[in-house]
Design brief:
The complex is a heterodimer of chains A (398) and B (361).
Chain A (H helix, E strand, L loop, with lengths): L1 H15 L11 E7 L4 H19 L8 E7 L4 H14 L4 E4 L3 H14 L3 E3 L6 H4 L5 E6 L1 H15 L4 E6 L2 H18 L5 E5 L7 H10 L3 E5 L2 H13 L7 E4 L7 H6 L7 E4 L8 H14 L6 H19 L6 H13 L20 H4 E3 L1 E9 L5 E9 L8
Parallel strand pairs in A: 1-2, 1-3, 3-4, 4-5, 5-11, 6-7, 6-8, 8-9
Antiparallel strand pairs in A: 10-12, 12-13
Chain B lengths: L1 H16 L3 H10 L2 H8 L3 H25 L7 H16 L15 H20 L1 H4 L2 H20 L17 E2 L2 E2 L3 H24 L1 H11 L1 H6 L4 H25 L12 H14 L4 H18 L3 E4 L2 E4 L1 H15 L3 H29 L1
Antiparallel strand pairs in B: 1-2, 3-4
Helix pairs in contact in B: 4-9, 4-10, 4-12, 4-13, 4-14, 5-6, 5-8, 5-12, 6-12, 9-10, 9-12, 10-12, 13-14, 13-15, 13-16, 14-16
The chains are: A alpha/beta (398), B mainly alpha (361).
């Protein structure tokens, strides 16, 4: 753990550059709103708090402590907005981190834009988040608009063009599904063989799977949140669809409950994500070891790595920001400091860079998606990295 | 107790001068609330107050059908969703950012239309009550309410999974109700007017017909009350409240709706407000909405650590509260209020009798 922090401290210090020590004597207040309704959700939040605690123990930001407030938004927009309002107007935070779910981050973008508070997105992938034109929002994860392109290219070139889609009704999955279909159409002129729009927590996919089986497709894309995806994968085999039909997951296939619940049905499933636990870099191995020892996580998914990268980028920006004691000015300084982050190389599969313009090109900082395949399911699941692709900043905006 | 009694006497004396006088005074007293909250605490509490006003509208509306008329409905949140989505879609510009349906209507036309549409939906939700009662009616209304949410979730034109975003805030001329404080005056006015009308309904012939149906449907029918008509009327009136609350929720900044805002959990929270407040008691519903909303806000991030694992205890606390309330306080806070009012009346009559007998002697 110490070694991991030392490795990343080097990165952060390099990024700090000539950041001036400011004559600022207060705590730096950071508000966090996340989906804390699952074991993993709580672990993401806990890890962010632990990392902030570690920064404080190491002397804080130029001697100032970070005071973090963590709140649960249950993945509900009204609760997320209430949390954001509470953190901004009651806790008077300098910086807001949130949220896990796109449907919560979307309205919070308007709240932070109006109040003038920098917002760092830890997990949400919906493309519209950065397309609202807010000067205050920064996305750490890979945007959904990139994922679709990467997956479509791999599928069209390696699997086939006759693809069936199971699309759950959560914001990220709908986005992933639509993006993949659009890219298959654009890159290969391939129309979907079958599309089923299902509930966010659908439990019965058997009728869809029977129809898909009769169509003789090359692949099935299951875009859904973790538990729903796992159920769909299991039922695809129960319906008698063979291993020769490749299963394609949306970005949430990266979440640990998928291989745990789906068991052997996850073998062969591939998906795009921002981080792979099978990453061979030393920094990734250290991170895997840290999450295992601290949170009992067998293999951290990209939501862990993104939350971790976010804290490091936040630390870098806070060290660079010239804080004065005026809340409005400090918020602006932190926003500008985040916008100046260039080429941060942490756990993400590629560098993360932001810039000042309130455009998706500037605020979707992470453009490198990694294509990951499951080689083993169950509690001790295993993955392999199939490919790493860095997308053009304009990709998916046409 | 002495203070409450003095207050009640004071309100009675004001009402004797003009029945609207206590309401006007209450309204005037509520006007500076945002400034008081902002000065003494924080701006966030104005946002909380706004949400409480919406909950009050919902709870008071639910009380009409459930408390006054005795119809078991758990589909109220679906009506709230209909009001919200209708008003949002009508007011959104066509071809707007979110890609959802939009008609670009003026907001002041969209809101009343949404209320009327919800009233009509209330009529449909109420139809099963003609044939069903108790748990069966609850199940039917639950199904209708949940199907509304699912319909929104799978319909891209209504926001689907991405939600309806950038719903405009109401405005008068160049003045836009886009801050906590300005929006407070909209929702607070709606809540006060809603409570007043609820009392008016309760004291009218319609209200008495509702109560007669609640006590005994057959006896009410024998006494010439058109049971079907009044049951449906209760559902429609209740739906109008839900529609208004929904429309105001949709336009409340940041102007975003998602089908996750209208789940069974929200319905249970609303029921808790009404049960805690006291089924059938208007003030009970108001107090229930205030207490539950504040309790929810204050407890939602309480975490209890068991074997170093965090456990969010709020759902458990709310669930147990519901069970204990039904077991030990079935009449809710409204029951206390009714007991208090009954005691006051008894004491006053006793004093009048005693005063009369003293004069006679």
């Amino acid at each position: 753990m110490r070694l991991l922090n030392k490795v990343l401290a080097g990165v952060v210090t390099a990024g700090v550059g000539l950041g001036a020590a400011a004559a600022y004597a207060e705590d730096i207040r950071v508000g966090i709103t996340m989906r804390m309704v699952s074991e993993n959700g709580q672990a993401y939040g806990q890890m962010v708090m632990d990392e902030i605690d570690a920064i404080n123990k190491a002397g804080g930001i130029h001697g100032n402590m970070i005071k973090a407030t963590l709140m649960n938004d249950e993945c509900k927009s009204d609760k997320g907005v209430a949390n954001a309002n509470k953190l901004i107007f009651q806790e008077k935070v300098h910086l807001l981190i949130g949220s896990t779910c796109s449907s919560v981050s979307l309205p919070i973008v308007d709240v932070t834009a109006k109040a003038g508070v920098p917002q760092m997105i830890p997990h949400s992938t919906n493309g519209k988040i950065t397309q609202k034109g807010s000067e205050w929002v920064f996305r750490i994860p890979v945007s959904g608009r990139y994922y679709g392109g990467v997956a479509a290219k791999y599928v069209g070139e390696n699997i086939g063009k006759k693809i069936a889609y199971i699309c759950a009704a959560d914001a990220a999955s709908v986005n992933d599904c639509a993006s993949m279909q659009a890219q298959m159409r654009k890159q290969f002129g391939a129309e979907p063989a079958y599309v089923a729009d299902v509930q966010e927590k659908e439990v019965d996919f058997r009728s869809h799977m029977q129809k898909i089986k009769s169509m003789g497709v090359d692949g099935i894309m299951v875009a859904a949140l973790a538990e729903t995806m796992a159920r769909a994968l299991v039922q695809s085999y129960e319906a008698g669809i063979g291993e020769d039909v490749r299963r394609i997951g949306s970005s949430s296939a990266s979440n640990a409950p998928v291989p745990k619940i789906a068991g052997d049905a996850v073998k062969g499933v591939f998906f795009t994500a921002a981080y792979s636990a099978a990453d061979s870099r030393p920094i990734a191995k250290l991170f895997n070891e840290m999450t295992r020892s601290r949170y009992g996580i067998h293999a951290p998914d990209h939501d862990f790595s993104q939350a971790y990268d976010l804290v490091r980028i936040m630390e870098m920006a806070l060290k660079n920001a010239k804080l004065t004691g005026s809340l409005a000015e400090d918020r602006t300084a932190i926003r500008d400091a985040i916008a100046n982050v260039q080429g941060y190389q942490g756990l993400a599969s590629g560098p993360i860079s932001f810039c000042a313009a309130p455009t998706p090109q500037c605020r979707d900082g992470n453009r490198t998606a990694v294509l990951i395949g499951y080689t083993k399911g169950g509690e001790n699941f295993e993955t392999e990295v199939l490919a790493r692709v860095t997308m053009d900043e304009n990709f998916g905006l046409e | 107790m002495v203070f409450l009694s003095w207050m009640a006497d004071f309100i009675d004396s004001l009402a004797k001068r003009h029945r609207l006088l206590p309401w006007l005074i209450a309204y005037v007293l509520l006007l500076p609330m945002p400034f008081v909250l902002s000065a003494l605490f924080s701006e966030y509490l104005i946002d909380l107050a706004n949400r409480i006003c919406l909950f009050i509208l919902l709870a008071v509306g639910l009380n009409i059908v459930k408390g006054f008329c005795g119809q078991v409905t758990v589909g109220h949140i679906g009506l709230y969703a209909i009001g919200a989505v209708t008003s949002a879609v009508l007011a959104l510009e066509p071809g707007g950012f979110g890609g959802a349906l939009g008609f670009g209507w003026p907001i002041w036309l969209a809101i009343p239309t949404a209320v009327l549409v919800t009233g009509f939906a209330g009529l449909i939700v109420g139809l099963p009550s003609v044939r069903l009662e108790g748990a069966y009616l609850a199940l039917a209304t639950l199904g209708l309410g949940e199907s509304v949410r699912i319909f929104i979730a799978v319909t891209p034109a209504l926001g689907s999974s991405t939600g309806l975003m950038m719903i405009p805030a109401p405005s008068i001329g160049s003045f836009v109700f886009d801050s906590f404080t300005s929006y407070y005056y909209l929702v607070m006015t709606a809540a006060v007017v809603g409570i007043y009308f609820s009392f008016s309904i309760l004291r009218s012939a319609t209200g008495r017909a509702f109560q007669a149906i609640r006590e005994d449907t057959i006896a009410a029918s024998v006494n010439g009350i058109n049971v079907v008509k009044y049951k449906l009327l209760a559902f429609v009136l209740s739906a109008l409240y839900a529609g208004l609350a929904g429309a105001l929720f949709a336009h409340m900044p940041p102007g975003y709706l998602h089908h996750n805002n209208f789940t069974v959990i929200e319905m249970v929270t609303l029921l808790l407000m009404v049960v805690l407040g006291g089924i059938g008691n208007v003030w009970g519903g108001v107090i229930g909405a205030i207490v539950v909303a504040i309790a929810y806000d204050q407890t939602k991030d309480l975490v209890f650590y068991f074997m170093e694992r965090p456990i969010v205890i709020q759902p458990l606390v709310f669930g147990l509260s519901m069970v204990f309330l039904v077991m030990f306080m079935p009449r809710g806070i409204g029951g206390w209020i009714e007991d208090f009012q009954r005691n006051r009346r008894f004491i006053r009559r006793s004093e009048e009798r005693l005063g009369g007998s003293t004069r006679n002697s």
